User: Fold this.
Amino acid sequence: MTRAISRVHVGARRGVVSGELPVITHTASAAGPLVVITANLHGDEITGTHAVFALDRLLGHQLIAGTVVLYPTTNPGGLAAGTRVSPPDDVDLNRQFPGSARGTWSSRLAASLWRDLSARDPALLIDLHSDAPAAIPYAIIDRPARLPAAQREALAGPLLAVADATGFTVIREYADEAYLQYQLDRSLAGAAVNLLGIPALTLEVGPRRGVDEHAVATMVQGVRNVLMSWKMVEGQPLISATRVPGIWRRSVTPRVRKAGMCRPVMPPGQVFVRGEVLAQVRNLYGDLEEDVVATEPGVVLSWVECGWVAVGAVTGTIAVADAVAL
Assistant:
């Protein structure tokens, strides 16, 4: 087994190198697939970076076949600033792929990363993210919305299989229209699915802005579970205690009509039916202003970090029963 260090150089418009991304590559002595694992596309989501550090230590003696390429941070400016977006243009880097060498800073950063990882011809991409302190771990499957029908159908099975292998609750992305409206096909995982035609996952584990060791361990186990299913590491897969079986699609809670303090009624991981109260909005005297009521059956994924919600805001993220095929 070998471990190699390299860098992705990010060039400015005139070709001057203006930044770099670290890359760690582990290659086993036995042949096998190449898997890319990325973290910290959103600069304030650091659980994935610490999970990559842990994976780096583990793979040195656990990788038995294939190659794993680790990108500990893909947004070092956002990491340093503690912001979700990418400085200096303050845009969401995870809506910029495949990027442009002649575009804005974030577009050039995306292009440099995309050029490096796509040239490696990966068989699978896993992108590591975080949601909120009050959340269950879940795996998001991107929609192959821009692929021809035959290729889309062929990819559906592998996408579901690799997501299921994580041991987390499995969530499909929004249906096609909303998926494209939110430019999720230009997320890193979305671009991998729709441009490279390979399975890709987004793992949402733990809080942002801080290190939760349990969340780091959970994320590492989810990745190891996938690598076990691909016969790249040995071991016994562990299923998350919060896993909710079923076919779900990402959604958001109904938007509130009254501003106030948000108090969740159901814990993350709770399955609900239409008409049940998910959360409450109360005023500064503690009086009930509004019940947030489920409009269809689903499961609670997370609650927002802030205590106060404005009119029109959402109180968290839910998933609903999904009858729409990939």
Q: What stands out?
A: The CA atoms of residues 159 and 199 lie 5 Å apart. Helices lie at 47-62, 76-81, 105-119, 149-165, 176-181, 188-196, 213-229. Residues 149-165 form the longest helix (17 residues).
